[in-house]
Amino acid sequence: MKKILIILCVTAGLSLGHATAQSDTKTNLEDVRKAIAESNELYFQAFAKNDTDLFISRYAEDCWIMLPNAPALCGPNAAKDFFQGGYNKFGVRNGKLITVDVYGVSEDVVAEVGFWKLYNISNIEIDDGKFIVLWKKTSQGWKMWRESFNSSRGKK
Questions:
Q1: Mind listing the pLDDT tens digit for each residue in 12-30?
Q2: Is 99 within 8 Å of 116 (Cβ atoms)?
Q3: CB within 8 A of 33, min separation 6: which ones?
Q4: Residue 75 and residue 156 in contact, taking contact as beta carbons nearer than 8 Å
Q5: What is the pLDDT of residues 79-129, one digit of tens each?
Q6: Most distant CA pair in the chain: distance in Å?
Q7: Do the domain assignments include residue 156?
Q8: What CATH number should be reported for the domain holding residue 147?
C-alpha cells in the first residue's frame, strides 16, 4: 500500500509539473505572438515612410531571406538589400501580413506561418502570397531570422 501511495504521489507530481510547464510555454507563446504582431505592424510602415532603418530592425543580424527564384540574401546587409529591392524595383509602399499560426520550435526560436499582400503607391494590390518565418529571440527582442515566401500568382 505504501508503494502504491508513493507511485501515485510521484505520478501526480510529474503530471502537475508537466501541466505547469505547458502553461508557462503557452503564456510565453502568447507573449511571442504579441511581439510578432507588433513587429509586423511596423514592417510595412517602413515601406510607407521609406524608412530603411525601421525595416532592418525587424531582422536579426544573421538573417537569411530566401526569395523565390533568386539566391538567398544572408547577413547584416540582407534586410537592407531586400527593402531597397522591394521599394525601388517593385514599388512596394504598403502591405499586410496575416499570421495564421505561431508554433514554438524551441525556447529561442518560433515559426510563424501566414499570408501577405503588397500594395503600390496608389494602394493597388500588386502581389500576394504565403510565408514562413523563423523568429529568433535576441537581446533586442524577437527578430526575423529565417524567412521564405512565394507569390500565389506564379512567375511573371
A1: 444 444 343 444 555 489 9
A2: no
A3: 99, 102
A4: no
A5: 999 999 999 999 999 999 999 999 998 999 999 999 999 999 999 999 999
A6: 77
A7: no
A8: 3.10.450.50
pTM of the model: 0.80
Q: Which of 153, 113, 151, 88 is nearest to 33 (CA)?
A: 113
What residue numbers bound the domain in which 122 lies? Answer: 2-151
Provide the number of structural domains found in the chain.
1
Residue 69 resides in a domain: yes
Query: Which of 117, 111, 116, 146 shows the shortest CA–CA distance to 131?
Result: 116
Which secondary-structure segment (H or E) carries 145? Answer: strand 141-151
User: What residues form DSSP beta bridges with 66?
Assistant: 148
d(CA 30, CA 63): 23
Residue 45 lies in a domain: yes
3-class DSSP state of 57: coil
With the CA atoms of 56, 81, 154 and 71 taken in that order, what torsion angle do they form, in degrees rounded to the nearest 10?
A: -120
Q: Is residue 84 part of a domain?
A: yes
Contacts of 84 (CB under 8 A, 6+ apart): 52
Strands 59-66 and 141-151: parallel
